[in-house]
Amino acid sequence: MDVLIQAFCQYPTGEVISRMQFEGAVIREQGQKIGIVIVESKTLDDHAQADRIIQNFKSLFGGVPVVLMAKDAAGKPAFYGRQDAVKLLATIQMKAIPWRKYTINF
Asked: I want to staple 21 with a disulfide (CB 3.0 to 4.6 A). Which of 5, 17, 35, 81 is the partner?
């Protein structure tokens, strides 16, 4: 499954638009709003890259804390981000999160 998809579209007018799609969610739990972005598991291993991705998505989610989530081969979720948000997400059933596909044009 492609987690982040970037595409470039050229319209008949010649205009080129860059588009990105990703899966994620925004939840409100225990009074805290958190953005979650699904990434490939190798992304969580590179903390510098993961921190850059979090900063980029933080602006897309309106400044709320963002946590990256990946699943291992067995389907078990792993998280990276602010520790308080990660601890909170570890207590939530993944089926209860309102996942959706986001499309961003820029």
From this structure: 5
- pLDDT digit of tens for each residue in the chain (106 aa)? 334 444 444 455 655 457 788 999 999 988 889 999 999 999 999 999 999 999 989 988 899 999 999 988 888 999 999 999 999 999 999 999 999 999 887 6
The CA distance from 81 to 47, in Å, is: 9
**CA gap 28, 56 in Å, rounded:** 20
Tokens 């996942």 found at: 99
Q: Residue 98 in contact with residue 92, Cβ under 8 Å? A: no
- Say which amino acid occupies 78: A
CATH class given for the domain over 23-100: alpha beta
What is the model's pTM? 0.81
Contact assessment for residue 8 and residue 20, using Cβ atoms and an 8 Å cutoff: no
Instruction: Dig out the tokens for 11 from the structure.
Output: 């319209």
Angle at 69 between CA 51 and CA 103, to 5 degrees: 85
